[in-house]
Amino acid sequence: MQSIDEQIAELKKLTNTAKNVDLAKVLGVSPKTIQSWKTREKIPEDIFLKARQISQNGVIAPPKGYVSLDFYEVEASAGHGALVVSEEKSSDIVFSETYIQNEVGVKAANVFLMPVKGDSMYPTLKNGCLVMVNQIDHFTGDGIYVFRFEGQLMVKRLQFSKHGLSVTSDNDNYQPWELSKDEIMSSDFEVIGEVVWSGQRM
Fold first, then answer.
1. What is the pTM of this model?
2. pLDDT for the residue numbered 27
3. What is the b/e burial string over 141-166, where b = at least 16 CB atoms within 10 angstroms of the residue's CB?
4. Would strands 189-199 and 164-168 be described as parallel, antiparallel, or unpaired?
5. CATH assignment at residue 122
6. If you average pLDDT over every residue of the chain, what do you get?
7. Which of 57, 80, 97 finishes a domain?
8. 71 and 120 in one domain?
9. At what angle do helices 31-40 and 4-15 cross, to 10 degrees?
10. Which residues have a Cβ under 8 Å from the Cβ of 47 and sit 6 or more positions away?
């Protein structure tokens, strides 16, 4: 039978951690809990199950009633646009599924999170804030959208206009501009989704 120190060493190996404080963080317990395991010389079996799951998958399934949303490190520009280099998913953020469906009003399976870069949408969206984007493939009505135009990824307020779409920033320092009907129909323009929620530091 393994000693308590050997069991903790096994947990660290499974979770790829070296210190007790890092192990505690990965397992979702306090460092004092690990100390109590050593005192009692016993570690709950579910802790080993969680550690093995982390070892196999690198992630832990969210609790019942919660959903893990994809988080993209690509920065949607709220300034003049930023060239999209990569859209690889890097990590997940967990939300209440009921909150997304009832309060935000969208399907959890259809949304993802990404950060905003720039100040053109200030004060509605601050630089560095997270936005929840409901994936759609076309403009559905006035609102804030994430879209691509000429290789740039942007987050702006889109509105119908006589000539096509009006692109507006909430920051008065940025001038509105137009997307013609031909530009909207071209391969240079693509709606990624509509911003339905934002989270930012006060």
1. 0.67
2. 83
3. eeebbbbbbeeebbbbbbeeeeebbb
4. unpaired
5. 2.10.109.10
6. 85
7. 57
8. yes
9. 150
10. 11, 27, 29
53 shares a domain with 70: no
Pairing of strands 111-117, 76-77: parallel
Q: What angle do CA 100, 102, 107 make, to 5 degrees?
A: 50
How many structural domains compose the chain?
A: 2
Alpha helices per DSSP H over 82-180: 97-98
The pair of three-digit structure tokens given for residue 89, joined into one six-digit string: 């998913």
Cα 69 off chain centre by: 6
Q: What is the domain extent for residue 17?
A: 4-57
pLDDT of residue 85: 40
My answer on whether 52 and 73 are in the same domain is no
Angle at which helix 31-40 crosses helix 20-27, to 10 degrees, equals 100
Which pLDDT value is given to residue 58? Answer: 64
Same domain, 76 and 53: no
Q: Is the C-alpha dihedral spanning 180, 184, 185, 188 positive or negative?
A: positive
pLDDT at 17 over 60: yes
Decide: 144 and 157 in contact? Cβ < 8 Å.
yes
Residues 109 and 194 occupy one common structural domain: yes
140 & 42 share domain: no
Regarding whether 125 and 142 lie in a shared domain, the answer is yes
From the list 177, 183, 193, the residue with the least C-alpha distance to 139 is 193
**How high is the pLDDT of residue 72?**
77
